[in-house]
Amino acid sequence: MNTPHHIAVIGAGIMGQGIAQVMAQAGHRVSVFDVADGAAEAARTAIGEALARRVSKGRLSEADRQATIDRLHPVDRMDDLADADLVVEAIVERLDVKHAVFQELETVCSTDTLLCTNTSSLSVTDIADGLRHPQRLFGLHFFNPAPVMKLVEVVNTRDSDPALQRMLLDWVPTLGKQPVSVADSPGFIVNRCARPFYSESLVMLEQNLATPEVIDDCLTANLGVPLGPFALMDLVGLDINLAATETLWRAFDHHPRFRPAVSVRDRVEAGQLGRKTGQGFYPHPRPKAEHIYTAR
Ligand code: NAI
Which end of the chain has fewer CB atoms < 10 Å from its terminal CB, N or C? Predict the structure, then answer.
């Protein structure tokens, strides 16, 4: 397969929007599809606004902003993705829905199209299960916010074609990203290692030992991470975070180390998903933080 030029992004939510921006900024023609009416167009508008902020700060020229926007094409039907060289799926984190999308893609796209999923925690092997050409399905796991975060996990399964994997690992740096080759296993590398970061903080909260603000402030101040666990859960989405935890919990035979926290589950049931709903562990937009260093 040749180096990809026409990229299709399926799902224009938090991640799809960011991934479409990365691809368009790297010079690719990008077709964006979402089942929700107007979502792909809204993502294009939001990318335009994000880039306009960079222009106003002198970090991007107006000509480059316009050229990037011109490369983004919202489309209404999956059929419009027929001539894509590479598809990145970034839809809802549900195996049945992802299955249906990839099965449709097999009928829409040519056999040369490389198929990628941005799943954060589902098994890529399970997503490929039942496909006619499972060797061309990879995980291409971007992190949030995709235009900013450098790392991309390139997830291969036992069926993966090594030549396609090599091509992906060589291509990802052209997007300004750092690839890491990862075998398909629960949570890949980052999301698996991140579980204790979240879970121990949640235990402290549930034991009323410290507030989210204090835990976040302590960890950002001392670990050098840009966001603490609660601010990060609000950014990622508590629903996405819970789905990842539940997947790992099941995959590791309900080991207590991965047990989902009540305080996350309760918020998800109440529709408090973080920034995208205006309320998570914090209200959004967040009032200016008062740094009061008492534990609770
Ligand atoms: P989101 O909820 O913001 O967006 C999902 C979008 O997919 C929505 O616009 C929805 O209308 C659309 N959609 C749902 N079903 C569809 C279908 N059948 N066809 C086309 N569009 C469909 O979700 P988000 O956060 O962007 O996550 C997307 C994927 O990326 C998930 O697999 C998630 O696990 C993964 N991911 C999420 C990260 C995060 O920080 N939120 C980080 C890395 C990966």
Answer: C
